[in-house]
C-alpha cells in the first residue's frame, strides 16, 4: 500500500516544488468534484421559493477559480498582492436573499483555497464533514422554530364555553395553537374566535374541520393555509 501511494505521488508530481501539469489537472478535477458536492448539498437542503440554478453554478465556478488563483500566486508575493487588488474590486451582482447563501460561498472558497494550497486531504475531509453535518441538520430540522400551518376562525353561540369546548379536539389534531382574537359578532348573538394553528397532519384538514363542527353546532368554520416556509426545490 505504501509503495502504491508513493507511486501515485511520483506520477502526479506531489513531491515537486512547482506543481507539474499532471498535478494541476488533478487539482482542478478535485476542486470541481468538491464544488459539485457542495452545490448538491445546497440544492438538497435549500428551503424557500427562490432557488437559483445560476447561484449553484456560481459556487462551482467560484471554488474552481479560487483554486487556480491560489496555484498561480503560491510563493509569489508580488503576484499575490496584484491578485488581491484585483479581487478587491469584484462585487457580487446578485443579492443574497438568505444568510446561508453567504455561508456556502465561504465554504466553496475555503475548499478552493485548500486545493490550491496543495492541502488536498484537508480540503476533501473538511468539505465532506461540513456537508454531512449540514445535510444531517437539515433533515433533522435542528433548531427549527414553531411553524404556523393554518389560520383558524370558529363561530360559536354564546352558550358555548369556548375556553374548554375545543381543548380535546385541539390536542388530537394540533401540535400548536394560539388564540389571537375574540370578537363579538351578529349584534352580540355569536362569538368569532381566531387562532394560529399547526396541524399534525396537514394532508387531511377535513377531519379536523368535521370534528370542530360537531362541537360548535355546525356554525361557520374557516381554515386557511398559511404561506409555507418549507418549499423544497427539487
- What's the number of structural domains? 2
- The total of beta strands comes to 4
> What can be said about the biggest beta sheet?
4 strands, antiparallel
Q: Strands across the major sheet, in which order?
A: 2-3-1-4
Gross morphology is: rod-shaped
Overview of the structural elements:
There is one protein chain. The protein has 234 residues and is of the alpha+beta class. It has 2 domains: 139 residues, no CATH class; 76 residues, 2-Layer Sandwich (Alpha-Beta Plaits), CATH 3.30.70.380. Helices cover 54% and strands 15% of the residues. The chain has a 4-stranded antiparallel β-sheet. Helix 2 packs antiparallel against helix 5, helix 2 packs parallel to helix 6 and helix 5 packs antiparallel against helix 6. The radius of gyration is 28 Å and the shape is rod-shaped. The two termini are 41 Å apart.
Write the layout of secondary structure elements.
Layout: H1 2-12, H2 21-45, H3 53-73, H4 77-88, H5 99-116, H6 120-140, E1 150-157, H7 167-173, E2 174-185, E3 190-199, H8 205-215, E4 221-225
Antiparallel strand pairs: 1-3, 1-4, 2-3
Amino acid at each position: 500500500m505504501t509503495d502504491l501511494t508513493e507511486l501515485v505521488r511520483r506520477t502526479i508530481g506531489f513531491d515537486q516544488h512547482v506543481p507539474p501539469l499532471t498535478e494541476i489537472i488533478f487539482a482542478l478535477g478535485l476542486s470541481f468534484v468538491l464544488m459539485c458536492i457542495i452545490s448538491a448539498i445546497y440544492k438538497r437542503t435549500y428551503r424557500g421559493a427562490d432557488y437559483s440554478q445560476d447561484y449553484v453554478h456560481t459556487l462551482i465556478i467560484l471554488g474552481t477559480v479560487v483554486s487556480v488563483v491560489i496555484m498561480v500566486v503560491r510563493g509569489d508575493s508580488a503576484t499575490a498582492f496584484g491578485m488581491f487588488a484585483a479581487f478587491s474590486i469584484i462585487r457580487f451582482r446578485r443579492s443574497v436573499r438568505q444568510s446561508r447563501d453567504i455561508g456556502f460561498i465561504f465554504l466553496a472558497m475555503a475548499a478552493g483555497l485548500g486545493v490550491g494550497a496543495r492541502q488536498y486531504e484537508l480540503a476533501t475531509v473538511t468539505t465532506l464533514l461540513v456537508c454531512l453535518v449540514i445535510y444531517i441538520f437539515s433533515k433533522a430540522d435542528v433548531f427549527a422554530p414553531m411553524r404556523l400551518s393554518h389560520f383558524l376562525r370558529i363561530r360559536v353561540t354564546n352558550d358555548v364555553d369556548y375556553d374548554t369546548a375545543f381543548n380535546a379536539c385541539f390536542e388530537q389534531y394540533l401540535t400548536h395553537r394560539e388564540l389571537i382574537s375574540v370578537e363579538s359578532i351578529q349584534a352580540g348573538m355569536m362569538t368569532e374566535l381566531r387562532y394560529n394553528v399547526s396541524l399534525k397532519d396537514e394532508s387531511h384538514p377535513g377531519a379536523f374541520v368535521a370534528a370542530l363542527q360537531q362541537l360548535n353546532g355546525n356554525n361557520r368554520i374557516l381554515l386557511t393555509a398559511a404561506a409555507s416556509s418549507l418549499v423544497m426545490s427539487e
